Amino acid sequence: MTAALICHEQAYLGQVGDSRCYLIHAGQVQQVTKDQSLVQILVDIGQMTKEEAAQSPQRNVILQSLGVRDEIEPEISAVPLAHDDYLVLSSDYLMQKVTDFKMCETISRAPTLSAACAQLVALANERGGDDNITVIVARFLKR
């Protein structure tokens, strides 16, 4: 699970497991959460590259998830937002099938955010679709 609370010009994020949050700022995509997984730890300590992690048979070993234990420790972070930024919250499977570039392009060309979500899910399904895919896109407009 990944959740976002928008307050003033900040996104406060809470994350458990391998659902993700991405920030699209000025056409650049940045993953702002880290998977709580075995391969992410191996990447963090330099024993595995991101490319190796994406192909690892252990990539689905999640260290925390909802419903497994009574108590969890979500990762909490804050991300500053600027006018016309997008936050994308998604299950990990979306990004296994859709590149950062294609995600950004799809969101920028879609007539609505709802259409962007539907197009991203459809694209990921066309490219494999063997896991659940959930996407939320929010656009920040400063007043």
Question: Can you characterise this structure?
Answer:
The structure is a single chain. The protein has 143 residues and is an alpha+beta fold. The protein is 30% helix and 28% strand. The protein is built from 5 helices and 7 strands; from the N terminus they run ββββααββαααβ. It has helices at 38-44, 50-55, 92-97, 100-109, 113-126, and strands spanning 2-7, 10-15, 20-25, 28-31, 75-80, 85-90, 135-140. The strands form 2 sheets. It has a 4-stranded antiparallel beta sheet with strand order 4-3-6-7. A hairpin with a 2-residue loop joins β3 and β4. α4 runs antiparallel to α5. It is globular and about 40 Å long. The two termini are 30 Å apart. The mean pLDDT is 88.
Q: Please list the strands of the largest sheet in the order they lie side by side.
A: 4-3-6-7
Mean pLDDT: 88
DSSP E strands, number: 7
Topology pattern, helix = H, strand = E: EEEEHHEEHHHE
- Whole-number radius of gyration? 15 Å
Basic shape = globular
Question: Which segments are poorly predicted (pLDDT under 50) over 5 or more consecutive residues?
Answer: none
Give the number of helices.
5
Helix-strand makeup class: alpha+beta
Q: Mind summarizing the main beta sheet?
A: 4 strands, antiparallel
Distance between the first and last residues' Cα: 30 Å
Helix content: 25-40%
Q: What percent of residues are in strands?
A: 25-35%
Name the assembly state: single chain
